[in-house]
Write a structure and sequence with these properties.
This protein has about 350 residues and is mostly helical. The protein has 14 helices and two strands, in the order E-E-H-H-H-H-H-H-H-H-H-H-H-H-H-H. It folds into two domains: about 210 residues, no CATH class; about 90 residues, no CATH class. InterPro entries: MATE_euk, MATE_fam.
Length: about 350
């Protein structure tokens, strides 16, 4: 008998080999299939939020520049503009989520996994709209360096989410549908809490002046920044997540699947026409990131023989490819920042803010 392979999760440990009884093999297959399904649901659930996250990055830039230029009323206008755009974008994404099962089956994925994941993601559709609005509110507050209310709102929502999951998933027995419903309620609760803060807090008096038709003007300027930002974020995440989909096409998919502050600061400095300050902020964060990477990397190397065994005993060379890809990305970004003309970027930021004001 060959040595048993081990696939482990920090909370779930399974062993199997080629000679186990048929009943145990079926049970094992069911457990592994459930793990694959959970992973599929996670990756599908990230698709919509990643797009919202990427396009929300454009709002961070625009609000940060407006705040640095002391055009405070433009922050509220830009946030409404982003809300309109992201809500409109969420509509076609909702249709894609609704037909997730059909799409995945057409792509050759396992029918049972696709059906279960599709049911879960359908229940998550309301959360897609909430997440889009939440990104706008977060960027609006972050550009003003208002972070404590966001922390409190997130903390309250997280505590409520735990109780809600216990009620819906275990007490009422809704299982995965209850988990999706809990996500919907919690995300909308977070939106409501931050929306009330923006509406009634004195800290937002100058930046939030109420709803305005001006938000419908110059949507193209927002999209010019939002679309590239969305592509950048999505491609970065999907380059890793695509492994899950590709593994579903392999002969044994159950086994293969086992295996923000800096941008705000730079936007503020550019909006205030201080290119040297923006360059300094980038240099500081690069130094901090390198130091953090050295520390985390060193610890990871020291515990490499222990950490990996928490998940699998299979020795694969996947990490080498990931490290090479990330290294190329880092070098490319460093070169781009070194070659950036920060005086021109500051001028563009000032002109962008002034153009928005003239249009309004």
């Amino acid at each position: 008998m060959e040595e048993a392979k081990v696939i482990e999760d920090p909370l779930i440990q399974r062993q199997y080999d080629e000679d186990i009884p048929e009943e145990e093999e079926e049970e094992e297959e069911g457990c592994l299939r459930a793990q694959v399904c959970d992973e599929m649901k996670k990756q599908i659930g990230l698709a919509g939020p990643l797009i919202a996250l990427g396009m929300g990055s454009a709002l961070e830039t625009l609000c940060g520049q407006a705040y640095g230029a002391k055009q405070y009323h433009m922050l509220g206008i830009q946030m409404q503009r982003a809300m309109v755009t992201l809500t409109a974008l969420s509509i076609p994404l909702a249709f894609v989520w609704f037909y997730t099962s059909t799409i995945f089956i057409a792509l050759g994925q396992d029918q049972e996994i696709s059906t279960t994941a599709g049911t879960f993601i359908r229940w998550m559709i309301p959360s897609l709209f909430a997440y889009s609005l939440l990104q706008c509110l977060n960027r609006f507050l972050q550009a003003q360096n208002i972070v404590v209310p966001m922390m409190i709102a997130s903390g309250v929502t997280a505590l409520f989410h735990i109780l809600l999951c216990w009620l819906l998933v275990f007490t009422l027995g809704l299982e995965i549908n209850g988990a999706a419903l809990a996500n919907n309620i919690s995300n909308w609760m977070n939106v409501v809490l931050l929306g009330m803060y923006v509406k009634f807090s004195p800290a937002c008096t100058n930046t939030w002046t109420g709803f305005s038709k001006e938000a419908l003007n110059d949507l193209l300027s927002f999209l010019k920044l939002a679309v590239p930002s969305a592509f950048m974020i999505c491609l970065e995440y999907w380059s890793f997540d695509m492994v899950v989909l590709l593994s579903g096409l392999l002969p044994s998919p159950k086994l293969e699947t086992s295996v923000l502050s800096i941008s705000t600061r730079v936007s503020n400095e550019l909006g205030a026409a201080r290119p040297k300050g923006a360059r300094l902020a980038v240099c500081v964060v690069v130094v901090i990131a390198i130091l953090e990477g050295i520390i985390v990397g060193g610890v990871t190397i020291l515990v490499r023989h222990i950490w990996g065994k928490l998940y699998s005993n299979d020795e694969e060379g996947l990490w080498l490819g990931i490290i090479c890809a990330l290294s190329v990305q880092v070098v490319a970004l460093v070169v781009i920042n070194l070659l950036t003309n920060w005086d021109d970027e500051a001028l563009k930021a000032v002109n962008r803010v002034q153009t928005s004001i003239d249009i309004e």
